[in-house]
Amino acid sequence: xxxxxxxxxxxxxxxxxxxxxxxxxxVKCIAVMLGPTGVGVLSILNHFQAVLFTLVGLGLSxxxxxxxxxxxxxxxxxALQSVLQNAWSIxxxxxxAALLLCVLLSxxxxxxxxxxxxxxxxxxxxxxxxxxxxxxxxxxxLLQGTLKIGALARINIxxxxxxxxxxxxxxxxxxxxxAVVSAxxxxxxxxxxxxxxxxxxAAGFSVAAFGRIQPETARKLFHYGMTSLLVGxxxxxxxxxxxxxxxxxxxxxxxxxxQPIWALTMAYxxxxxxxxxxxxxPRMCGIKENRDMVSELNGTFRxxxxxxxxxxxxxxxxxxxxxxxxxxxxxxxxxxxxxIQILGxxxxxxxxxxxxxxxxxxxxxxxxxxNISQNVLxxxxxxxxxxxxxxxxxxxxxxxxxxxxxxxxxxxAKRSLGFSFWGVNRVLLFSSALAIILIAVCxxxxxxxxxxxAPALVASAWVLLNLDRQELAKFLEYARERLSRKxxxxx
Length: 491
Hints:
It is built from 17 helices and no strands. By secondary structure, it is mainly α.
């Protein structure tokens, strides 16, 4: 079981990792050319765009993928096309209505999210990407539902590369305005690439097909999408509220200073957790016995922490050079709060790993409640702590927001499944938290030798304590198999 989870994580994570590396180069260019204030403005606008995309998407992609997959397997191309037609006929008009609303409200929206009405044109430009984004939303769902996973990987990589090519000259010549225009240009690039792969990989199906909306089909799509919509909207709205709270309390520059920490938090756990979901979620859907689910949860938890904790320790030990490498020396103030945020990341992994069973076992109310609770706690904590403690208060709010949800899913799993941690997993969890704390404490002490040597000793002790030799041998064997397989002709 552990080998299969590892295999999926390594395979599915490769594309995500490549995209993130390309995005890091783009972020570096933006940071150097625009500085903390420009990065702060763009981070707000990007969060605003994420909220709009989530609301306009109505969560329908989950249902679209489900039914396309089902009809594709049965060979019912007529029903498959009906799903596409209903999704497009619902989402495209909604995107146009949202664009019109943003245009009409651009001034108050600019005042709210950026505390400056002068950015209203930027709000309109970002909103213009909404109708453009509908085709990739439906088209990529078609590719995923018909199992064209390779096409999806190529779409993501090409989009990231072409966006990088566009954004650098636009910012160089036009500054912040060029960066804003590049957001719309990136959406157009995504549309063109998605359309190409839909036409070559899913020929015979039309994505942009208007028609009469069929109530029964729409009901099915909304049934599967409502949970995704509620949870996704709550997450992105809370993130937007968090950033606007920083802007209103501390100003746009400090919002930009916080961005490296926030971006790292959103990047490295997402690669591992989303990659693991590709294997763990469908597997959990087929589990019937509680004891099997407990075993699966423990295995998922173990692999997640074994992958993510070393990344946390490296980031923490080398936080200043990492921030300077990915952004610039102007952002080094954020290094002082990285350890607080990383503790929050650890709790986030615990929450994710233990809460994985809620959807497969149809605990929808619990799933929605704990996710929305975390978002509410994040915003409430930031509002309470940002004034007296600044960015440190924001980082503590992030970490504290995962405490209650993590405890809640653990208690729920204990009561509903009889869940308990494997002994090795209890050691893994507590030693990971302790290693983060020890490295953070070491870095507050003077002395280069201590700062460099102590983290290495702590990380070595963590490895010796947690990495089982048999597990390591299996993982290394699998990695060698994958590398040798790629090197063979015809693979």
